[in-house]
Each structure stands twice: as structure tokens, then as C-alpha cells.
Amino acid sequence: MESWLPGSSGPAEVGPRLRGLRGADLAASACLLSGAGAEAGCSAPAVAAVLPAGGSGERMGVPTPKQFCPILERPLISYTLQALERVSWIKDIVVAVTGENMEAMKCIIQRYQHKGISLVESGVTRHRSIFNGLKALAEDQPNRRLSKPEVVIIHDAVRPFVEEDVLLKLVTAAKEHGAAGAIRPLVSTVISPSADGCLDHSLERARHRASEMPQAFLFDVIYEAYQQCSDYDLEFGTECLHLALKYCHIKAKLIEGSPDLWKVTYKRDLYAAESIIKERISQQICVVMDTKEDEEHVGHRLEEMLKNELNHVKVTSGRDLQQIILEECYNFVCVNVMTSDFEETQKLLNMLEESNLSILYPVVVISVQFLDYESEPSGQKMENLMRIREFAKEVKKTNILLYGLLVYYPQVCVSQWLAKQ
Amino acid sequence: MESWLPGSSGPAEVGPRLRGLRGADLAASACLLSGAGAEAGCSAPAVAAVLPAGGSGERMGVPTPKQFCPILERPLISYTLQALERVSWIKDIVVAVTGENMEAMKCIIQRYQHKGISLVESGVTRHRSIFNGLKALAEDQPNRRLSKPEVVIIHDAVRPFVEEDVLLKLVTAAKEHGAAGAIRPLVSTVISPSADGCLDHSLERARHRASEMPQAFLFDVIYEAYQQCSDYDLEFGTECLHLALKYCHIKAKLIEGSPDLWKVTYKRDLYAAESIIKERISQQICVVMDTKEDEEHVGHRLEEMLKNELNHVKVTSGRDLQQIILEECYNFVCVNVMTSDFEETQKLLNMLEESNLSILYPVVVISVQFLDYESEPSGQKMENLMRIREFAKEVKKTNILLYGLLVYYPQVCVSQWLAKQ
Fold it and tell me: Could you tell me which residue ranges the D-ribitol-5-phosphate cytidylyltransferase C-terminal domain spans (chains A, B) (predicted)?
């Protein structure tokens, strides 16, 4: 078993840039609910997470295991890690991957700057992988580098949209009941086939639920269950709640989860995940105007139009750009009416590069230039404009996608065009 | 109950333009397997389909019932109808919709030119809707306009990707066993909760399957089952296979379906369906060159590049355009190096409009003009080029999306640019 911790795993250092206010609120509630806060001025409850990620993804129909399939060029598992990292009260995240994928996983952690992750080698089955993850957190193991948590969350690497509120409900319920799992209504009727491939009986849909992930357990409960369980369980079982019931007589509390908890299983799920992520990051846009703005500036007109399409539209002439970038806006339009240079765009690109915003998602910048075609044609002006291709090549290396848009018009038409919109 | 047949419902007239060779092959096999072919020189087996489409789609989280949600601006149910229409041996398709949606459904049938569809009013539950659909096909009903089929397929309006091969397997199995249903492996473990919201027991995943749609039945079997079944069944049941078992003692044959059979249930499923459809129609592109082509024509270079990205790339200077349109190509690039007029593009647009290709999917046409910016600037030339906006508005009404792309370059650069690619 290999263990690897990039940098310190202290929870205070885990992706602070990405943690919103909502996270802080929930952390406070977690504290309140846990009862652990009384001792050390509301210290984070001892919660760790184990992610089995050793699967081969054969159902996906693609050679890459599904947890490593790219969504917007970033591996699926990185989104799941990000979702867990955002939760301030999860101290350690243990990921079980195959020896074959160990190096790739290290690269992912480094590239996307994930913090507080430990890697262990996965087993040949899901249960064995989880067991390996639990061992890395247990007290009775030699050379252990992590401390035993009170509660452990078990989650799937291929469920990237897990929210803090369901994690909190599960952890709270696990403290009370010993185990808790997320459930969803069944989408299809479940049937039991007979040996000859015919219907034996069908189950009443209302009396059954789909058991989803995440699940949470008192660490001692689930570790005990794994230590006691049979080889048959480890080989053929998939359900942790079942082990807790069978070996520790713990009846898990069932928590209704959101539809977002679904497991990325088939290629269509990758499409769905990509669309969900795209929708999330595309709802916020910032229009950057050149500083020679006026009342009738096209930037303001653009703002009006974009507001009909998008949830969050901001306009700036540059002063509060830093703040907008901090709030994780991934889409920018730079509008240049009067100039044929890229001073404003260049400034924005510099700020974006410094912010590291584009590590997690591509940042899109559209630099719009208005040019009067009736004015004297100027080779020099065009050369200036065509420099954008060089910029674009340069910033693409840092995951910033720069596009140039030249609006070529007779001067007199602009006001007409704007009036028409 | 309302019954409505737009035009003739003869199977030979159902969307012949859309029926591929594979469909014809399968129809021949269907004939062979059915044993019905012997009597009347291989007449189509008597198969009808019933589609309950009265659901409210509350799980989708959108006000529109999911079967009417648009995918690429076309309602989901139209894709499902298209999938069934393509199967030459399905004679009638009965769709059960609410009175409220009856007019909307008629519009969909008319707009997308669906043939052989009958509408009936849905019931308040899925089972009641199916029963209404079956009644429209039964012999014992007054004023019936459809003939009783030997086998009836029951399918969901929200499963648009059903393929002919699985339909054929089901119909064949239904003839032999009286009933047949598509199944899929379970993605999640199924559990049974206790009354207090805790785990009672979990089911062994390998011993159970998800019951999907379509299903097929000897008409007399399933109609008998619906006639006998209790009000409780009609109110709270969902599974037709269960009714055939309970009331007619028919153990349905279970047929493994493809992952594509999944039911569009949540918003993410709409995203997935859209991506699947986009992928299908975007893998074929046709590059139309202007007739003043030469060896170094940019169209040929474009072809080389596109071949790395897409499955089917064709290049034409216009002569075999008609054939390419018939083969359902939805993407065109018109490359014009030497002219600033739109003669070639206009020709293509005319052919597309005549073909009705864009009834089912949007057709994308990109008209590319190369223009030397060092040549004498000509207002007239620009005015010509800007006419594309007028064309675009015009053809958008017929679902053709026309884009203009002006590549503005110094003459000397073109060969350099091409050499670099």
C-alpha cells in the first residue's frame, strides 16, 4: 500500500479560495450538531472521507476508467475531490486507486492543486478498495500517517455533484445511528428473473429505494464490519450499509438525497455532467468596457441584452475586476470601441493568470473590437488586431480561451444597430 | 375518447425518406421469424404500439411535462415517434395524451410530419392511459378505426432511442411467450426501508434487474389482463409485465436491452439526450466548394482537417449535392475563395428548403468568404457580404441556421496559412 500526502493536509489549508460563505455557515452548524465544539472552541469534527476509485468503467464503453474521463478536459474525479475539499470539516480524503493509475492520480492532484488527499492502492473489488482506505485511517495499522476520524464518509469518485448539506445530514445521522446512507426513489420497477430468463416476480416500487452514495459511518462500526466480513462479502458485495447491518447489527438511517447524487455510469452520464457543469459556469459573465466609456457605451447595451439570458451579469470598467475574478467568474467580454490595441484585454489576461482561476475550469475571454470600414484602411491597425492570435496561443497554455471578434461597420450604422436591438 | 388520424395510416407511407437499409433488413427478419410471411407473400406482421404520454413530469423540475420538453427545439416525444415510425412493420401507433395536451400533440404530429399516429385521451394514471390505448385497438369497442394487432408494443414517450433490433426481439419473444420486456442491470443496490426510515434489508443486486421499456404482448393477453385487473392495480401499479403475470399467468420473457433505452426522467437526462442527438447529427459534414475550384482549393484542405475530427466528411462542387442531402447530412460549409456573392450558398439553401430535411433537425450552413484586405476596399463588396444576414433571417424560419464567416487576409498569407495547418 502506498501513501502519499502532497503538502500539509490541515483542513484550514484546503482550497480556501473556493470555499463560499454557505460552506462556513454549514461548518458552524456541523460544529453545533456534533457537540465536539464545546471542547476546543469549536474545532472541526473528526470526519474523513474514503473514495474507492479503482473501477475499470467497463459499462462506459470507453477504454479510460470513468473516474478519469475528461469533462471540459478535466478528469471527473477532480470534480468530486473539489466537492469534498470545499467542505471545511472533512479533514482527510483517502482515495483508493490501482497501482497502474497511481501516477496519473498524483498528476491530477498536483495539476488541480487538490489538498489533503492521501492515496492508497485499491483492491480488486470495491469493498476491498474501501477496506484499504479505512485501514489508512485506522489506529491498528503500522506506519499510519492519518489520525482516526470519529465519522467516515464513503463516497464514489464518479458522483461529482455531492453537496455539503447532504454530507452534513449523513454525518449527523451516522453519529446518532452508527450508519447513514443517501437514498433516491426508484426510476424503474425492479424485477426478479427466474433461471430461464423469464419474470419470476416484480417488486412493489413504492416499498423500495435506490441506495446511493455518499454514506457515513461511525468509523469503529464500519471498520469492525470490514474486519469481520467474509471473503465472499469482499468479493461479491457492493453495499456498505449491508455490512454494517450484518456484522454490527446497525440499521442505517436513510436520508433522501437530491437527483444530483446520481452516479456517472454510462457515456450519456458524462454528457449530462458536462452540461450541468457548463450551465453552472456559464451563468455568470463580466463585461469589461474600455476606460473611454460613455453613457451610450456598447458595454451597457450588451449588459441589458445578456441579462435576459444569464443569471449574473456584471459590468466593470476595470476597477472591481479583481473582486469579480475572486468570485469565480469564468466568462469575460472586453469591449473596445475606440481603440485597436489590446491594453484592457492584456490587463485582464494578466489578472486572470495571476489568480489561477483557470486551473479548475477554462476561462473564456472574448475581445471585441469595433472598426469603421469607411475610415481610411490601415494595414497597421489590422496588424495590431491580428496580434490577438498570438495572445490566444500564449494564454491557451494556462487554460484561458481567448477569442477575438471584429465588428466591422460603417460609423453611422452603430447607433442604428444599437437602436434596433 | 378522441381519435385522430392525420392522413392515411398505412405502414408503407410512414416516413420512407427516413428508413435506412438496416430497417429493411430487420423487417425481412421480422417477417421470417413471425411465420406470418407464408400466407400473403411476407406481409408485415400485425404489430401496433401504444405510448402512454399523459405524465406530468414532476420529477424534471420544469413546468412542461417531460415528453414535451424541447431537445434542439423539437419536443422529446417527436424523437420517440420518429424511432417507432422508422420500423416498417409497426402498423399503428396509439398515443395517449391528456385532453389539455391534445391540441399541442396534434400540432407536433403535423409539424414534424408524423404518420400513422392515433391519439386517445390519457387516464389519470399510467395504467389507465395504456388501457385507453389498448381499447382503441380492441375489437369489442364501438366506432373503432384501427384493426386489432396480433402483438402490441408498449413503450414510453420519454425513451427516444429505442432501436429496431430490440423491438424485433421483444415482438418475437411475445409471440412465443405471450409477453416480453426489456431489462437492464441495476446501477444501484435496491434497499427496503423500515417504517422509521432506517434500513430493513438490501437486495442482492445480481439477482435483480431494472424493468425498462419497451415491452411487447400478445394483444389478447394484455387486453385481458387490463380488463380483469382491479382498480387498485390501475391506480397504483406501473408494471405491465406484472399484470400479465397476475391475471393471465404469463411469465414474460426478459430481453437484455441496450443502455440507450433509459428513460428521460430528470433535467440531466434532457442534457444527455441532447448531447447524444447532437453527436449523431454532427458526425457528418459536407464541404461545398465554389465551382472555380483548383488543386489547392481551401475546400480540400478543410476536408483533410475535418477528417481528423468527424466520421463522415464529403466534398462536392455541387453535382452530387442532392444525393448528400438525401443521405441526411445536416452540416454544410460553403467555401467561396474567389467571389463575394452567394450564388453557391443560395443554390444549396434552395435545395435544402425543397428537401424538407430541416423539419426534424436544424441544418447548419456556414458560408465562408475569403477577402483580401490589401485589395482596394469596396463598399459594394461589403454590402454584398452583409446580405448574408438577410438570408440568415429568411432561412431560419425553415430551421436552417446560416452563418457567415469572413476570412479577411492579405493575399500573400493564404498559402502560408494553409501550409502551416
Answer: 283-411
